[in-house]
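Annotated sample (chain length 115).
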Amino acid sequence: MDMKLELVPVPVSDVDRVGFVADHDFQVTDQLRFVQLTPPGSACSVVIGTGITDMAPGTQRGLQLVIADADAARDELLARGVDASEVDEQPWGRFVYFADPDGNTWALQQVPVRD
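Output written by the structure step:
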C-alpha cells in the first residue's frame, strides 16, 4: 500500500508573510483561513492559516526539505535576509538550518551522491 505525505501544517502568526507561492488561499470563516503552499518541485505541501492547528506559532521543529545544492540554497536564503547556518557537512548529507520568522525550524538537506 502506498502512503504519501502530501500536507504538513505549520503554525505561523502572520499568514501573509511567507516566501512560497500560494496554491490555495481560502477565508472560510472569520476563524478559519486555509493557505496551501508547495515548495518548488515538492510533492508535499505546507498549510498555514488561521484555525488550522492548535500548535502555537513557532513550535514546529525539524521540517526538512531536500535540495540539490546546499551552498546555492544557503546563498539564496542569505540574499532574502534569512539567518541561515553555515553548511553542515555530514556523511549522510550537507545541511543548512534556519528558522522562519515565528521560530519554526527548518533543515535543507543535500543528499550525497551514491555510487
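Annotation: DSSP finds one helix and eight strands in the chain.
Annotation: The chain has a mean pLDDT of 92.
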